[in-house]
Amino acid sequence: MIQRQTNALEPSTVAPLLEDLRRESQEYRFAVAPNPCVGAAVLSGDRVIGRGYHKRWGEAHAEVNAMAAAREAGVPEGEWDALIVTLEPCSSEGKTPPCLKAILDAGVRRVGIGAIDPDPRHSGAAVRLLEDAGVEVRIFGEQGGFPGENPAFCEWVSPERVRATRPWTIAKWAQTRTGQLSPPEDVGEGRWISGADSLAEVQVLRGHVDAILTGVGTVKCDDPGLCLRVPGSGEAPLRVVLDSYLRTPTTAALFRDPGAGESAGEVVILTLAGANGKRWRALEESGARIIGLRGNEEGRVSLVEAHVWLWEQGLRRVLLEAGPTLLQGHFDLDLVDQVRVYTGDVFGGEGVSLGQTLAGLPLASRIDRECGQDAVLEGFLFMEA
After folding, report:
1. pLDDT band at 1 (very low <50, low <70, confident <90, very high)
2. 3-state secondary structure of 117
3. Which of these, 37, 62, 60, lies nearest to 51 by C-alpha position?
4. CA–centroid distance for 20 within its chain
5. pLDDT, the chain, mean
6. Domains and CATH numbers, the chain
7. Is residue 178 a contact partner of residue 348, using CB atoms and an 8 Å limit?
């Protein structure tokens, strides 16, 4: 590639661009967590020819999207003068190939970075590898602002969290205005609180987790299939049921073949070691994989042990879709990292209310928005707001 004279890495060009990219990347914070919010741009001279963001967990990172946008703009790679990115590019294989490789393959000769990766396992690695490959690298900005913009990621890579060996867990539920998770019998067939737009959003969320975790109470009450109805979302998540005494019906919807346009992951039932052998065999014959775990003091499957098992299977982002008892158990043990709560335009309902629990949660980066007829709350937990 012919070296071009350019001011692409001048602070007067890069600083305002980085500020814009940081602000715009925040829109996707709940969709990418525990990954960081990252924005990137490709420059030709001092002109931005492509912007990109990390928009969903498990999908292409900001650098790859920015370079794709530059190509779509019709500017040949020989005229790319610099790549600007808010965070040091990844240098290791994850859900996607390392961005470092994509940058080098594109022949980028200058990279401006807004912050060094705070993860001590990777910090500075991409900078060294880029420089070893002859790429000019400049670091801009202060590290101090990164934790405030990326609390989920900083929590995820903290030494305490790394030692916890449990997946990032998103608690999702729908509730009535009075906080019940089951509507009155004359609303939504006694099952549905949220509207069609919210149900479609949840399908997208399911397509970007490794597993869906629920309890046997939800299986018996609602008989969910936990299928995926979003084309192109990749492999359907594992469907995991916490069932201490193997009460899951062998006729449950979980065991039915997916319908047209649907996909479904394997069914795994986490139970107490030594649970009823006859039920164990019957559920295996229905298509489930049964895993025996240690119990807690109450004689039920230990939630901590269940999360350790999820982690050991390589499951890193888990969606908790359950009833109030299992949800509360997770909150009591600090096993939830993120919440998404849909409040429908429905009063009353069945069962206990989670309203008091929700009101007491320490939420960081909170957002309140609307989705069709429903109100939606999202936030991160157990981080300083």
Report:
1. very low
2. coil
3. 62
4. 23
5. 91
6. 11-148 (3.40.140.10), 165-381 (3.40.430.10)
7. yes
Q: How far apart are CA 377 and CA 370, in angstroms?
A: 9
CA distances (Å), 259 to each of 212, 254, 255, 282, 348, in order? 19, 12, 12, 24, 33
Residues 6+ apart with CB under 8 A from 141: 15, 18, 114, 115
Catalytic, out of 63, 149, 155, 378? 63
Residue 189 in tokens = 């067939």
Is 63 an active-site residue? yes
| Overall pTM surpassing 0.90 (yes/no) | yes
> For the chain, how many residues are written?
385
Residue 197, token pair as written in the block: 């737009």
Q: Is 101 helix (H, G, I), strand (E, B) or coil?
A: helix
From the list 205, 251, 260, 261, the residue with the least C-alpha distance to 231 is 261
Task: Give yes or no for residue 233 having a pLDDT over 70.
Answer: no
Rounded to whole angstroms, the Cα distance separating 171 from 332 reads: 13
Q: What is the DSSP letter of 120?
A: T
- 216: nearest Cα among 258, 250, 190, 246: 246
Residue 99 · residue 68 · CB < 8 Å: no
CA distance 332 to 312: 23
Both structure tokens of 150: 């990326």
What span, in angstroms and rounded, lies between the C-alpha atoms of 179 and 172?
A: 13
21: nearest Cα among 58, 64, 51: 51
pLDDT at 83 over 50: yes
Q: Quote the tokens at residue 66.
A: 């920015």
Please write the tens of the pLDDT for every residue from 303-349: 999 999 999 999 999 999 999 999 999 999 999 999 999 999 888 78
Asked if residues 180 and 353 have their Cβ atoms less than 8 Å apart, the reply is: yes
Indicate left, alpha or beta for 351 from its phi (over 0: left) and psi (-120 to 50: alpha).
Answer: left
Joined tokens for residue 208: 């970007």
Cα gap 42→88, rounded to integer Å:
15
Stretch (H or E) spanning 161: helix 159-164
